Amino acid sequence: MPRNFIRIDKKIKSFKKKLNVDGDKSLSIRWALIASQAIGTSKAKNLLQSEDVNNTLRCLKKLGIKISQYQNICLIEGRGINGFVFKKNITLDAGNSGTLGRLILSLLIKSPYKIKIVGDKSLSQRDFSRVIEPLKKIGVNFYPNDKSKLPIYIKGTNYLRPINYFEKRGSAQCKTCIMLASLNLPGVTKITAKNSRDHTEKMFQSLKIPIKIKKKSNYDLITLSKPKNLKKFDFDIPGDISSASFFIVLTLLSKNSKIILKNININPTRIGVIKILNMMGAKIKFQNIKIINGERCSDIEVKSINNFKSINCPTSLNSAAIDEFLIIFLVAAKANGISYFKDLSELNQKESPRLLIAAKILKLMGVKLCYNNNSIKIYGNPNLEIKKKIIVKDFLKDHRIFMMSVISALSFGGEWKIYDPISVKTSFPSFFKKIREIGGNLK
Ligand code: S3P
Known about the structure:
Elements: E1 5-8, E2 16-19, H1 25-35, E3 39-45, H2 51-62, E4 66-70, E5 73-79, E6 91-93, H3 98-105, E7 115-118, H4 129-138, E8 141-143, E9 152-155, E10 164-167, H5 172-181, E11 188-194, H6 199-206, E12 211-215, E13 219-225, E14 235-236, H7 241-253, E15 258-265, H8 272-279, E16 285-292, E17 295-303, H9 325-334, E18 338-341, H10 354-364, E19 368-371, E20 376-379, E21 389-392, H11 399-412, E22 415-419, H12 431-437
Parallel strand pairs: 2-15, 3-14, 6-7, 10-11, 21-22
Antiparallel strand pairs: 1-22, 3-5, 4-5, 7-9, 8-9, 11-13, 12-13, 15-17, 16-17, 18-20, 19-20
Helix pairs in contact: 1-2, 3-5, 4-5, 7-9, 7-11, 9-10
The structure holds shikimate-3-phosphate.
């Protein structure tokens, strides 16, 4: 059996590098699901080849969709809206992916048979009532009827009705679930959605799906009608800013280092991390900005910084930085002063209860803090150095907790033993290769 931990006992030395990171996970999963509903063969370049995306492709294959992959190209032979062909009694395994588990439901709302949806230990502990409840209002059946977690059975209906849906969490998964459902709904579907990543809106627009979006300060009013069909669509997937963020923070915290991360998706709804780090004193720059498939992309230039300012983090940035808070907390741990992050209960709804686990790791690192289920105050120490042994274990194999721990070890020193390295395969399979490329010493 492969060893299920890594050891790190050396800080990373100064580096100057250009790096690519793996493709964007949100775009990869969305592209695959939507391509399965289009007519004809859609092609993606640089699709993320991670477990979450592999599980997406496996589920689509079980639903009768032909998929082929060679080098960095993926081809999906869509069969049109609701064109899935499958047998009775199938089980779809969403693995670790909340995005897949929640979004796939919306493509099954006309299914004549019960379909079982399962996930791994982490996903089976996460809330699904947030998508089950609005789908029930559309007319979809779930068994058992009162369950809010996986495993669960879904059975569709031919008597679907559109809804007015109020998405108040700032969850792109919930918003997208209803947007995808609208592909099969008669009449007009209306969504009032608290600001969150808008990749699905952009894909719908580029596919000429009837969609109107009115922007209010914190909310979008989205109106959708059922398209006749979807044409095949090709996508060039840029690098994932959530993966890039581990290297952004490692560069900021290391001495005399510089990195250029090539061709990253910098969609304005995803760059909360850059805004927050720049408010804390970083000078992160975008170079060669381009629009590809309606998505803003650029190279990101980052240089080391000696002094970080603490931050009272505006909650308006929470959704745009939701997957990056763990790594932002490491910068707060080295900032001059007390940083405060609030209204973050959603962070405990992720692959693990991230706010609580991050607080435990920060405590092990000797960082002073106050926290509850919803917020955290981090007392920064500009001279933070770790000299002791730290073991990171039992975090539900959460990929981002693992990578946060690696970045902390390489930035602050100490003797770290970090369990479940396999978790990086969920979102960032080339993580170790990239860490080694810039000189990180992992054992
Ligand atoms: C995602 C949305 C976010 C994010 C997740 C990916 C998406 O989740 O945390 O990693 O692709 O829509 P929520 O919508 O639950 O906030």
